[in-house]
Design goal:
- With 68 residues, the protein is α+β, with helices and mostly antiparallel strands.
- 22% of the residues lie in helices and 37% in strands.
- It contains 1 helix and 4 strands.
- A 4-stranded antiparallel β-sheet has the order 3-2-1-4, with no helix packed on it.
- The longest helix has 15 residues.
- The protein is elongated and about 45 Å long.
Length: 68
């Protein structure tokens, strides 16, 4: 996973991090082209792109079916 700063080049789901002193707080957020939709009011300090929740569920379902 590569952590980025600034604004993403595309809309999508991201794992976001906010620096709080020497520690970081992490949360999933969605970037919609001009703004972040996150549980925090400030824009994230850094972020990494992730699959959407729907895609993550599909991946878990496929792994479960594979193991059966």
């Amino acid at each position: 996973m590569m952590w980025e700063t600034g604004e993403p080049k595309e809309q999508g789901w991201y794992l976001c991090a906010w620096q709080m002193g020497v520690e970081y707080v992490y949360s999933v957020g969605k970037y919609e082209g001009a703004e972040w939709l996150t549980s925090m009011s400030a824009e994230p300090h850094t972020w990494a792109q992730i699959d959407s929740p729907t895609k993550q569920n599909e991946t878990l379902d496929n792994l479960y079916e594979y193991e059966q």
